[in-house]
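Mods, move this if it's the wrong board.
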Amino acid sequence: MTSLQRTGDSAYGTVKSPRYAILTYTWGRFRASSDKPALEVKGLSWKVSPIKDEHFTVDDFRRVIAHMGQSVEFAWIDVCCIDQENSATKMYEVGRQAGIFKQATYAFAWLNFHTHEKLQGLFDVIFDLDNIISGWGLEELSDDQKHTATPKLQCILSTLHSLMQDP
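Not the wrong board. Structure tokens:
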């Protein structure tokens, strides 16, 4: 994998405004000591921070990036695109993330250590709930609709909370 430096407004090397995918995930609190393996990226002036294996391994990271590459040729991944050691650069680039994410052709979310089945169950509940209350204000729901929606909302909030927890 090679990182291309921005050479102008939305230009990377000879490519102007490429289609790209973004990867969103949490990793900061899972940073490993500097002697651990880290993703190797050509073209960077900094070393990508290693991540604890229990969060994800370098091989896991490579597999996700390869999967992203099936859709588009370019990817935006913060640890590969933002120098994590240069605070001024990091803060400037973090401030640009909303625009970067908005312009992405595809967005991938790494939802940590949860199984596909658990995540699918959450999405099923979300879509089912959306079908129940779509077009309604909560104050307009019948008691029966509220009775059906409330436990599902609690399930969603509980599962979202679990996504934020350490393994």
